[in-house]
Every structure is written in C-alpha cells, then in structure tokens.
Amino acid sequence: MNVGGEFGGALVYMVGRNDLRRLPTTSDTGAVWLFCHHQLPHFDYVGTQDMPNPAGTSWRSLVKKSLVISAALGTLFIASSTLAADYGVRAPIAAMPVFTWTGCYIGAHVGAGWTDKTVSVPSIVPGESVTGHTFGALGGGQLGCNVQFGGWVIGIEGEGSAADIRGDTTQTIQGVTGTAHAETDWLASATGRLGWASGGWMIYGKGGAAWAHDKYSLFIPVFPEQETASETRSGWTVGGGIEWAFLYNWSAKVEYNYYDFGTSSVTLVGTFAGAPIEVPGVQIRQRISVGKFGINYRF
Length: 299
Fold this sequence. Notes:
Order of helices and strands: EEEEHEEEEEEEE
Strand order of the largest sheet: 5-6-7-8-9-10-11-12
Structural class: mainly beta
Distance between the termini: 77 Å
Number of domains: 2
CATH topology of the largest domain: Porin
Radius of gyration: 47 Å
Number of strands: 12
CATH class of the largest domain: Mainly Beta
Largest sheet: 8 strands, antiparallel, barrel
Helix content: under 10%
CATH architecture of the largest domain: Beta Barrel
Shape: elongated
C-alpha cells in the first residue's frame, strides 16, 4: 500500500510492508527515507522529497533538527519523571511503636500444684503427727497493671485458679489405721510485682496475700468412724518468673509460686459407730507450690 501527500511543500510517501521497494524519484527530487517500522505500525517507510523551502533551508535539515529537538524533549521528560519519583512528596512511613511494659493486661494460665500437709490432734494423740502430700492440675486467670521506668517494671496483679490438688494418706497410730483425704479446690492471690526488662523480655519477682479453700475427710474402718471438714484459709505467697512479649500486645510467661498458709485448727464432724461426733482442735499445717504457664494480652 502506498500513501502520498504534501507536508509543507514536500511530498511524503508511506510504503506498506508488502510494497517494500525504493520509491521512484525524479531528477529534481531526492528521496529521504526514514525507517518507521516501530513508530507507525501500519507503515514501514516514510519518504519525503528533499526540496528547498522559501527560506533556503532544506527540508532534510528541518527534519533532522526536529528529530534532535524531539529527542532532547523526550530525554528531559524522562529525567523530570525520574527526579519527581526520587524527590517528590511521598506518603509518610508509619514508625514502629517503641515497646513498653507499661499498661494493664488480662490473661489465663494452666499449671500444676503440689502440697505438704502436716496433721496433728494434740488433744487426742499428743506428740503424734502425720504428713501427707497432694498433687494436681489447676487453671485460671489473672488481671494486672505495670508501669515501666527505664529498665524497671513495677506492677500489681490479682490471680485466681480453679484446682484439683488432692491426695490420700493411710497411717497407723497407736494400733488404729485410718485414711485421710485432702483436697484444695481453688487458690487466689493479690500481689505486687517487681521486674527488670530488656526489650521484650522481663524477669520478675512477686509477693503478697493468698487464699485457698480446702476439704478434708477421715475414715477409720475399725469402728467405723467417718468425718469431714472444710475451710477457707489465708496466708502469703512469693514467686517469680520470666515473661516474653512475642507480639506487641501479647506475652507468654512461666512462673513459680510458693504459698504458705501456716497452721490452722479445724473441727471434723461425722459419725462414730453410727453416732454423731465432733473432733475439735485438728491442727493442719499447709504449704503449696505451683508451677504454671500463662498468656497475657496488654491493652
């Protein structure tokens, strides 16, 4: 396909791909060919006859100058776009928040507890005592608040756990054999905490008041004799642990607590050979150790 026309007094030819040949020229015109395969998808060649314009400048020179100016403008446009991308206004990048232990938290924990209980009844068998051990699982929740000053972290915490810490012991005293059962079904504490933090890690100690609920039973088959008792007792606790903030608002901890509830006096109530009976002044010394794993969410 051939297309021809005038452009500012010059004849312009565009030759189709299937017409690939040199266009005929006359004695007074010389053809200048520009390969435009990529610029003009429908034409392969553009030809202009080189003829003088009224100012005396050849159209060949004008075309060359136009090409130089176009290339310069294109380079300037590309450079300007690059500079705009490098130095233009960009959306601000949000800074990562600096981690701190300051704030309140709520969490949950699971673990296990083991106890030592020493029982004596001075009014009935003076000078005699029996020590038994219990063991079992526990789980619950905690709520607290911390304030960080430099590397130091101080805080308060309240904690409660449902427990199934139980055990039996069978003993023979003065020829009479009996089995005693003890169970701790919940624990609670209100403590202060003091820790040292480095980034997302903190090691801490804690201490304060503690409470526990215990149930007891005694069975002596020879009579038979069977009694029970229960009590809520108070004491103190100390402990410590390591806490790790694995996300900005979430942390995990491992912790050990020691509870001391001293010695308390309970009255066993039941039957002896089928008749009602009460055994007052049963002295019970109790200590509990707890190991646990917990998760906290700070808000």
